[in-house]
Amino acid sequence: MVLKPLIVISSDLSHFLPYPAAQATDRQTSQRILELRSSLTHEQACGGTPVNGLLLAARHHHLQPILLDLRNSGDTAGDKDRVVGYASFAFMEDATHAK
């Protein structure tokens, strides 16, 4: 059995925006992640520094991000006045660079 590394990085996205503004902001942030654009601010993702590091490593190792889910606390907790954004991504080896 060949073991492959698993790296987990956790970060919220936007913080305490109204629901519609958070949705728009988090969609833009998710698009930047999908494009491997490693210039996220801490307003876009409170853990912007580790996320940017992951995006740099993903680009270097030819990993492609896949958006698994995008939501905010208004989708689950009910209060839509001040929500926190969340997304989950998987980074997979680019088929053109697979061994």
Automatic annotation (TrEMBL):
| Taxonomy, superkingdom | Bacteria
Q: Name one Pfam family in it.
A: Memo
Q: Which InterPro entries match?
A: MEMO1_fam (IPR002737)
Name used for this protein in its record: AmmeMemoRadiSam system protein B
Naturally occurring in which organism (per UniProt):
Sulfuriferula nivalis
Taxon lineage = Bacteria, Pseudomonadati, Pseudomonadota, Betaproteobacteria, Nitrosomonadales
